[in-house]
User: Which sequence fits this backbone?
């Protein structure tokens, strides 16, 4: 079987459905609706049309020549998901699931969000389709992504700050699951990454697979061959699965995921789930996760809210296990340097999440040399991160900056 | 023979049914949680459901979340759970089921967990986020150690899933009263009655209702059609507000609901 043909509930020993019995009927209903939609050409046509006229697909690729000079001279090609409506890849999955929610007759969607990008995309789809929308967001994240909170509210969504646990993405998912159990009849849980119980990991991946399908053709057209490596940042892993999927059976193409290493993987302050985690059950699936000896989930740390998650999607755990993809940690400082470098060499300010992949590309380019072609998932734009970046580089108070250069 | 099933059967013979009480280990501290559990069993609670605090309790409402988070902040370790079972069982001869989310069991080792629970005198496990479909390891380990395994059935469960829950469970089947999470409710959902009758049709001997039950009248009402009534948040709230004495008092009051 081709790697690309694998679907849930299990990817090797990972995946499954570890949720309260109350949710099983909803997951079955969703799975059935998704299978029916997949077999229905009108669904694909509707989604394509939305992507063409609303998202702005296909997204372009941009060759980053000046940035590439810092990557050992390798050809760096950016897949510009930052140019999508709402500013990141998240909209691909959201529009797919929102269409499904409508097919299921649901009138309300709920979502969790870390960086706020998935919440913004969900609020956007809710506005477009006339659905009620509630977004759960860890209180810590509402503070560091205040701009996105305002965007969601302007779009008509209710944003609920989650004040329990570590008050970040993992707790927002718990709260969304609790809401879903209680309101499953009217409500679709629009999960924002390739994690969670089956069918979410497969379905969310499929909705994002358009990234890799487009990029594979675009790179072939531009360079006449497949890239040597495909690089993406990994939080839950949706943009990475989206761009990896079309390349899974291209043996010569290395797949590299960059996880958030925070202060460093040898400190307690990181979110490098695959590098440092162990198999376990979190948020409805068996995968790799950061946990203590007793199986209590550990708090993750990253400057990037969207990567600040102690779990990862089960398909990534499997790809790591079988050695098809490799996962490397990138620290806060490395990511922020890459963010500034791309801004200054290409005039593109990426999201801090995305900057982890950009550091990954710099590292890989230096290893592979000037002959290499590296495709990078430019998963989102940096507007939402301006406050964090401005503070980090001291741009608000010119006298006290780290930015002496 | 299941101590839990026996107890439920006996209570249905001599009274309206069984009262099952939940408290988490380690709240407000280990010693007090043991004393409070013993107080429950000495004041009319028939079966103890002892919760192991977990970092991501998706089935729990605000009250139980707050208590288990306190226990975790105070340094709760899994081994405290086994110690608590042992200490409670040395003081009262009543069945003690442990309620735990699945990951801690996986990390401890399913077989090792089952063996240690049995050695501590525990009766079995209630597993809110483990469905029978994913439970092969636990089915084997619980059978090998003669432990009860309590799976959940919900208003949304299909008939096939009801049958599966009945066949997989030992001790009793946990009938979820409402589509929701733990927490006291003014009305125990009418759906509970439907879940219990569907479980009976699926062949359940013992079906106990949980979620939302907090008053003696609700206990009495539930026991008019079910074999047991499970009370959690109300007891945790009593412990938080008034300590062990309050738990004893609330338990005794709830137990009046088991009279026929
Ligand atoms: C721009 C961007 N990239 C990446 C991520 C990480 O998510 P995932 O790993 O699911 O792609 C996020 C999440 O919020 C994001 O906003």
Assistant:
């Amino acid at each position: 079987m081709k790697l690309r043909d694998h679907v849930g509930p299990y990817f090797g020993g990972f995946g499954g459905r570890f949720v309260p019995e109350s949710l099983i009927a909803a997951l079955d209903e969703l799975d059935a609706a998704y299978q029916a939609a997949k077999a229905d050409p009108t669904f694909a046509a509707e989604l394509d049309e939305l992507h063409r006229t609303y998202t702005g697909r296909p997204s372009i690729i941009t060759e980053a020549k000046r940035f590439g000079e810092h990557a050992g001279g390798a050809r760096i090609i950016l897949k510009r998901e930052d140019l999508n409506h709402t500013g990141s890849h998240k909209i691909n999955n959201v529009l797919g699931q929102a269409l499904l929610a409508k097919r299921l007759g649901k009138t309300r969607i709920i979502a969790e969000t870390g960086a706020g990008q998935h919440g913004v995309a969900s609020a956007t789809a809710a506005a477009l389709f006339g659905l009620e929308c509630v977004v759960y967001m860890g209180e810590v994240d509402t503070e560091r992504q205040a701009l996105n909170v305002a965007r969601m509210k302007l779009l008509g969504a209710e944003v609920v700050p989650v004040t329990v646990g570590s008050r970040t993405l993992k707790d927002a998912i718990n709260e969304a699951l609790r809401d879903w159990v209680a309101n499953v009849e009217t409500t679709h849980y629009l999960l924002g990454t390739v994690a969670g119980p089956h069918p979410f990991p497969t379905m969310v991946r499929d909705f994002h697979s358009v990234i890799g399908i487009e990029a594979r053709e675009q790179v072939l057209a531009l360079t006449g061959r497949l890239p040597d490596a495909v690089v993406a940042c990994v939080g839950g892993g949706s943009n990475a699965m989206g761009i990896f999927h079309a390349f899974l059976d291209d043996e010569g193409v290395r797949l590299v995921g960059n996880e958030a290493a925070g202060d460093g993987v040898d400190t307690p302050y990181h979110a490098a789930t695959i590098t440092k985690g162990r198999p376990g059950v979190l948020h409805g699936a068996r995968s790799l996760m950061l946990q203590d000896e007793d199986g209590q989930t550990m708090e993750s740390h990253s400057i990037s809210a969207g990567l600040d998650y102690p779990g990862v999607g089960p398909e990534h755990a499997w790809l790591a296990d079988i050695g098809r993809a490799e996962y490397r940690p990138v620290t806060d400082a490395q990511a922020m340097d890459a963010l500034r470098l791309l801004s200054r060499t290409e005039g593109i300010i990426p999201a801090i999440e995305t900057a982890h992949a950009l550091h990954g590309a710099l590292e890989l380019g230096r290893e592979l040399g000037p002959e290499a072609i590296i495709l990078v998932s430019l998963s989102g734009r940096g507007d939402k991160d301006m406050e964090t970046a401005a503070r980090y580089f001291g741009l608000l108070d010119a006298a006290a900056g780290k930015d002496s250069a | 023979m299941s101590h839990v099933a026996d107890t439920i059967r006996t209570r249905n013979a001599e009274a309206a049914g069984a009262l099952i009480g939940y408290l988490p280990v380690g709240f407000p501290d280990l010693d007090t949680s043991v004393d409070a559990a013993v107080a429950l069993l000495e004041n009319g609670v028939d079966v103890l459901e002892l919760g192991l605090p977990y970092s991501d309790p998706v089935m729990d409402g605000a009250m139980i979340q707050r208590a288990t988070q306190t226990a975790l902040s105070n340094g709760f370790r899994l081994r405290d759970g086994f110690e608590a079972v042992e200490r409670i069982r040395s003081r009262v001869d009543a069945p003690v089921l442990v309620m735990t989310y699945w990951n801690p069991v996986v990390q401890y080792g399913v077989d090792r967990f089952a063996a240690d629970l049995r050695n501590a005198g525990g009766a079995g496990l209630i597993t809110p986020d483990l469905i029978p479909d994913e439970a092969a390891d636990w089915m084997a380990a619980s059978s090998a150690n003669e432990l009860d395994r309590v799976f959940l059935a919900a208003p949304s469960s299909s008939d096939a899933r009801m049958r599966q829950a009945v066949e997989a469970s030992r001790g009793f089947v946990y009938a979820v009263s409402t589509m929701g999470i733990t927490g006291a409710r003014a009305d125990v959902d009418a759906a509970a009655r439907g879940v219990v009758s569907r479980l009976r049709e699926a062949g359940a001997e013992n079906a106990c209702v949980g979620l939302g039950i907090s008053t003696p009248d609700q206990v009495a009402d539930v026991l008019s059609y079910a074999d047991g009534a499970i009370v959690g948040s109300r007891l945790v709230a009593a412990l938080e507000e008034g300590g062990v004495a309050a738990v004893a008092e609330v338990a005794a009051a709830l137990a009046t609901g088991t009279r026929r």
